[in-house]
Write a structure and sequence with these properties.
By secondary structure, this protein is an alpha+beta fold. It has a domain of about 100 residues. The chain is about 20% helix and about 55% strand. The protein has two helices and ten strands; from the N terminus they run αβαβββββββββ. It is elongated. The termini are far apart. About 20% of the residues are buried.
């Protein structure tokens, strides 16, 4: 029994079509770390690092998920207030290459340090809320968070 070349090619094409979107999603996922500073979690293990996954980090907001000891999985949102400069243009062009009107707009990120927030709810009802600062056009920052059980965390990403 022989295989037809088109079947093998179509399987490879299908595999490629299925893998490319996953690769694109992975590119906009970043890791955050929460370091317990005060409270029952810091008292139990001051060296503990709680790893969080932030998705859609190429944008200004996305989902956030992590696990707290004895509290279960926590899911929520991160959001950053990243200002953008918008400029609109319109006019008349009388050249050989551009005859007629021209209308357009440009958007660009304004350089600077921007504020952001995280908010998550855990399986047991614990709420985690925090603030951070982030550089424009980057996926790195620093901040602080606390939960409804009195724990305080340093937030780094």
């Amino acid at each position: 029994m022989t295989r037809e070349p088109t079947t093998s090619l179509s399987r490879r094409s299908l595999a490629l079509v299925l893998i490319l979107p996953l690769a694109a999603c992975a590119a906009s996922t970043s890791s955050m770390q929460l370091y317990p500073l005060q409270g029952e979690i810091a008292d139990a293990d001051p060296t503990l690092v709680i790893r969080a996954v932030a998705k859609n980090t190429n944008s200004t907001s996305g989902t956030l998920s992590f696990r707290l000891p004895k509290r279960g999985k926590c899911t929520g949102t991160w959001s950053s207030l990243t200002p953008r400069k918008v400029s609109n243009s319109q006019g008349l062009a009388l050249t050989w290459k551009k005859t007629g009107g021209e209308v357009g707009s440009e958007r660009e990120t304004v350089a600077g340090v921007n504020n952001g927030e995280i908010y998550a709810v855990c399986d047991d009802g614990t709420r985690v809320q925090g603030t951070f600062v982030i550089g424009s056009g980057t996926a790195s920052g620093t901040g602080q968070a606390s939960d409804t059980n009195g724990n305080v965390y340093k937030l780094l990403f």
